[in-house]
């Protein structure tokens, strides 16, 4: 529990000035907390390293956090999971999206759990409050892309897959 609380505190500090893309521009920290909630309370995941990685999953990709910093605070296993689900922001967006689909089947079981929760949370957020400026077409394209990523993650956790499928049913 202590590591989970530390991860929430760390992620809150790292994401403190970031906002989600929804119309309300909700605090970014809501997203990693939603992932941990999906994993722990909806899917019954008790693996502390998975929950911590879920909370930290966007810190390397979206903040000034280094892998070395994460490893020093949360260990090599958590850092490895975070790295597996992090995009290389030096690549063009289309390439990053293509690589997520391509790499999904090859990432570790723990990383797949985090990725499944991430895609589920994103679909739920788009359904509840679409990003400002996103057309219906862009929303549909995101849902279809997320499904292509998740199709490469299947076979590891029936409940998480069902939760994703339920969210996908609300495709705009």
Could you describe the 3D structure shown?
With 172 residues, this protein is an all-alpha fold. The protein has a single domain (3-169), classed as Hypothetical protein af1432, CATH 1.10.3210.10. The protein contains ten helices and no strands. α8 packs parallel to α10 (158-168). The chain is globular and about 40 Å long. The mean pLDDT is 96.
In short:
The protein has 172 residues and is mainly alpha-helical. It contains ten helices and no strands. The termini are far apart.
Total strand count, please? 0
List the helices and strands in order. Answer: HHHHHHHHHH
Total number of distinct structural domains? 1
Average of per-residue pLDDT values: 96
Could you please say which CATH topology applies here?
Hypothetical protein af1432
Which strand-content bin applies to the residues? under 5%
Q: How is the biggest beta sheet arranged?
A: none
Helix coverage percent: 55-70%
Query: CATH first level: which class?
Result: Mainly Alpha
Which architecture does the CATH hierarchy give at level 2? Orthogonal Bundle
Classification by helices and strands: mainly alpha
Basic shape: globular
Helix count, DSSP H or I runs of 4 or more residues = 10
Distance between the termini: 38 Å
Low-confidence stretches: none
CATH superfamily: Hypothetical protein af1432
Radius of gyration: 15 Å
Keywords: Hydrolase, Manganese, Metal-binding
Organism: Propionivibrio dicarboxylicus
Protein name: Metal dependent phosphohydrolase
GO molecular function, one term: guanosine-3',5'-bis(diphosphate) 3'-diphosphatase activity
């Amino acid at each position: 529990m202590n590591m989970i609380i530390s991860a929430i505190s760390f992620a809150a500090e790292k994401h403190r000035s970031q906002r989600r893309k929804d119309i309300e521009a909700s605090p970014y920290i809501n997203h990693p907390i939603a992932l941990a909630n999906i994993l722990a309370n909806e899917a019954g995941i008790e693996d502390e390293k998975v929950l911590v990685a879920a909370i930290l999953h966007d810190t390397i990709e979206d903040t000034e956090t280094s892998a070395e910093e994460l490893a020093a605070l949360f260990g090599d296993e958590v850092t490895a999971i975070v790295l597996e689900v992090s995009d290389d922001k030096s690549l063009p967006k289309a390439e990053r999206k293509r690589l997520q689909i391509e790499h999904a089947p090859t990432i570790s079981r723990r990383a797949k759990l985090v990725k499944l929760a991430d895609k589920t949370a994103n679909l739920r957020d788009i359904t509840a409050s679409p990003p400002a400026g996103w057309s219906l077409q862009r929303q549909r394209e995101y849902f279809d892309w997320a499904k292509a990523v998740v199709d490469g993650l299947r076979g590891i956790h029936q409940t998480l897959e069902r939760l994703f499928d339920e969210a996908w049913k609300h495709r705009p």
